[in-house]
Amino acid sequence: MYTDHDRFHDIASGLISAGYITAPGRVIKHGKEAAVLCCPAHPSLGVEHVALKVYRDQSFRNFRNDATYLRGKVWKRRDLGHLKAFKDELWVETEFRVLETLHAAGIRVPRPYTQIDHGIVMEHVTAAGDDAPMLKHVRLSPEDRRRVLEEVLEAIDAMLGCGIVHGDLSVFNILYDGAHPVIIDFPQAVYANTHDDPYPLFRRDVERVVASLAPAQAAGAAEIAAELWGRHYVVEARMMS
Questions:
Q1: Does the pLDDT of residue 33 top 90, yes or no?
Q2: In the predicted model, what is the mean pLDDT of residues 98-104?
Q3: What is the fold of 4-127?
Q4: What Cα–Cα distance (Å) separates residue 13 from each residue in 5, 30, 36, 92, 125?
Q5: Gap between the Cα atoms of 15 and 225, Å rounded
Q6: Fewer Cβ atoms within 10 A, N terminus or C terminus of the chain?
Q7: Could you tell me where the DSSP H helices lie in the chain?
Q8: Is the model's pLDDT at 61 over the cut of 60?
Q9: Any idea which residues carry the catalytic annotation?
Q10: Which of 1.20.210.10, 3.40.190.290, 1.10.510.10, 3.40.50.2000 would CATH assign to domain 130-240?
Q11: 3-class SS at 75?
């Protein structure tokens, strides 16, 4: 049986041969959908380490409400029934494409280097020389919490300007590099211009980060979402309810 361990080994071997990493490295995070490793980078990349994100086999993965995120994401002519056969490919391709777009736009996301099979090589985000922690685990002063929330909302706005909605944003998939938030985990991201109902996902992203970083403002998060959305798209009356 082909296991996740086999997959990690094969992907790492391919990346070593391709000149992106020099060794498999160490595990940063083991998640339900993917594992992230810190790997020594090939000297040609000009950095000491990179992060390698390897998606687990579909049988081990648990993306919630797949159909919600798949709507509008099928840029190749395949129906959703056939789509089950290549979901893994779709999630990886989505994340890599989104990272490329957002990084090119100057938004704080890990720089993507390459995609191979079910793996993505990207920037290793650090804080004080160590792995950058999730924002959830960072203690911030009230002033810094306000600043970080403002930066996250600015990033959400800029992402929407690129036509992209994260779709599952929370303080669990925002890193903190010691000065600024860095948004990660984009396999479920949707394109606002092709998804048939992107606003609920967008609004949920905003509501989650506001509730976590500024609980006193949580009641007004829906209005914040509508204001941000209105900078790029028409805000319908039903969206405000």
A1: no
A2: 98
A3: Phosphorylase Kinase; domain 1 (3.30.200)
A4: 12, 20, 16, 18, 23
A5: 40
A6: N
A7: 4-18, 66-70, 80-83, 87-104, 142-161, 199-213, 221-230
A8: no
A9: 168, 185
A10: 1.10.510.10
A11: coil
